[in-house]
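Backbone shape codes
____________________
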Amino acid sequence: MNLCYVLEMDKDMREIFGSIAGGVAYKFGLFFHKKTQSWTCGSPAKPVKLTENEAIQKAEEIRNDLVAGAEIISSFGPLNSTADYEQLYKQLEHISGINTVWRMKYYQMLFPILFAPFYGQDIQLDVLHFLNQTPSEIPFIRMGQIALFSKKCNIPGIVFGHIWGRSTNHNNKSNDSETNTLSDKKHKLHYWMYTVFDDTSWMECQQKEIMVLGMDDIGDYSLTISKNLLLSLLLMNWMM
């Protein structure tokens, strides 16, 4: 099983980290073309057939770029602002295809705290506009901007991705063509992640079988008209 297949087609990976399905195999920079029975790169308009040795050399270049990017990210230091992500990107922009969806998903899987699982342009823009943020022109940085919001909310990016996917109609607006969402209508089980302020709060919640969210201005949650409205109110409070 190769990396490209795992990133795009593996069911478990898609369920947890979102989908990048769709488009053409050319997006990976190298693939084996079944019809022509040859290793191929380039683009649909200008395909380039490669010998086996040329394909190996191309694969090594892609691998080396992935490793180089991972080393830069892991040694960069804290990423606490959009400016930090911009500085990081300056060290990464020389890497070929750094803003392609499959590379962004690869780095998100390696560094799930630093990057949010939103790879396609449409969904990145949708999320950032909803959060009243000015999106960066660079996809890689936009992924970081969303991660900063998740960090501010004290929830993992993966969890925020699932919340977003289930609370929007993104799946109804687009197909899977390189725009991802972490919502899967086939899911049978749903979970909430809950964090309390301290051990004392946790003991009180456990004993009384209640949840304390610290958002008093919402009022009595049980009086909320619908789950979707409650979710919207919670998200809006996290943004404030």
User: Anything to note?
Assistant: The first helix runs from residue 3 to 8. The two ends are 45 Å apart (CA to CA). Confidence is low (pLDDT under 50) at residues 170-179, 181-187. The chain is about 50% helix and 5% strand.
